[in-house]
Fold this sequence. Notes:
Layout: E1 3-8, H1 15-24, E2 30-36, H2 45-55, E3 61-66, H3 80-91, E4 98-101, H4 106-113, E5 116-119, H5 131-136, E6 155-160, H6 167-177, E7 181-183, H7 186-193, H8 203-218, E8 224-228, H9 231-242, H10 247-255, E9 260-264, H11 282-295, E10 301-303, H12 307-322, H13 333-338
Parallel strand pairs: 1-2, 1-4, 2-3, 4-5, 6-8, 6-9, 7-8, 9-10
Helix pairs in contact: 6-12, 8-9, 9-10
Amino acid sequence: MNHGLILGKFYPPHKGHLHLVQEAKKHCDVLTVLVCSLEKEIIPGELRFEWMKELLPNQNINVIWVKDENPQFPEDHAHFWQIWKRTIESHSPYPIHSLFTSENYGDPLASVLGCKHIPIDIDRNVIPISATKIRESPLKYWEYIPEPIRPYFVKKIVLTGSESVGKTTLSKKLAEWFQTNWVPEFAREYLEKKPNPMEESDFLPIAKGHLVSEVETTKSSNGLLFLDTDLLTTKVYLERYYGSEIPWLTERALGLKYDGSLFLDIDIPWERDKLRDLGDEREEMKTKFLNAMEEAKRDYFLVKGNYLEREKLAIHYVNQIKEQPINPFSFTIEQILLRKIE
Length: 342
């Protein structure tokens, strides 16, 4: 049996890694992929390990998580190569015949392991990408992120503000401009189907429905996702109409993190419809929303002016968000759990 080895951080996994695995499999019967991580890294090793198992569902590929806090460069430790040899051999299920890499360390490492080095796309001509580039600018290199893990890299932008400030109109415009998805306000869809007037008991299913819509729409989004309100809005209206609190809702309204927030001002005319009744409380509701944003520790970009001015301001802001590196909170266990619906 010819046993091959690939090791790396996969920080994050990208299509270059998948190409490396695909080519390596042509040269061996069984392949072991070691996912090496350090505690200090932004994307947890456990998550990368789970990603790689999902991306490589082949019974002849062993994906193994290496938690050893080893030195990262030969100059970091006098016994660098011996340390890594011990780690690799202790995690490898079989003797290693071939080492596959797209890195310059392949030759010296193979020499230490006593195996053959087979380089794959060392110059990155076939798949011109690196994990560093994706960490620094995920949306710029979106095409190189494997589809199953893209939802973790989608930048979510919430449009917040009281009723009749143009959130829906602007959400649609932004989604069209940036060729991606937007999440409509679930409360409106829910209440328009409801034969009876809104009740306090409606708020929990509204909150859960909105969160499900966010999670599901993220899966098919093109790097960005615009949300016409979020659970913070639901919390504000629950307090306004019933003066009450739902712990499940409060935890997520205050705990969920987003990549950006557009706060829409009340300087456009209020328009009545069957679900709007707070036209006389615009200033008070604006204050409530601003207080809620502060309570949730959310920064925001104020959008005001006529509809065209709002659109220009929002596009400028979103273009800045697009250039930002990966956001550490996107990969935390806390945020992942907060988006799960029990």
